[in-house]
Amino acid sequence: MIIKNFFEKDINRNIETVIKADDRDHISTEVAEYVITKEIGNKIRELFSNYKSYSGSNGVWISGFFGSGKSHLLKILSYVLENKEVDGYKCGELFAEKIEDDVLLKGDIVSSTRIPSESILFNIDQQAQITTKDDPAAILKVFYKVFYDHVGYYGFQPHVAEFEMWLDKQGKYGEFKSKFENILGSIWETARMDYFDPRVHKFFFKNF
């Protein structure tokens, strides 16, 4: 008898030793192979029950020792709630199928996946280059940066991002980018990284 034949999955495949928040190359594998322990099952039962029926703002704090799987759980939950299709599978449905002995939990997961959701996963240390750790608003600034980047604004410079958001609200952001490129011959998303360039300043003073 060969030991590897006892395993359902190929034990010679590459297995990531560290789960990275921004790694989206192995989504279906991560969801399919995630093990829902009894303790995790008890915790997510409350989470999904509240998630599908709560009408206001909500927040969940995941606590645990270093290496206990907090980030892994958070990442899996983001996939489940977004329920995106990856490799022919819906992540939420794939996760729900893992629940075999709790009909209510399985139903709550399925119901939760029907709620439109969008996740922003990031490592806060990797995004902290815009501020210093002794800044009392450091965490808030990082959250703003990541959000602005996610929606397509220039989060590295919040005042530029706020200007872009203002244009968007006026329905003129697309027109602005087109006009900018026609006049300066540069794509705005590239030029905004050098917004202090005299040509960019001249464009603003002349057109706004």
Automatic annotation (TrEMBL):
Q: Where is the DUF6079 domain?
A: 21-86
Q: What's the protein called, per UniProt?
A: DUF6079 domain-containing protein
Organism equals Chryseobacterium manosquense
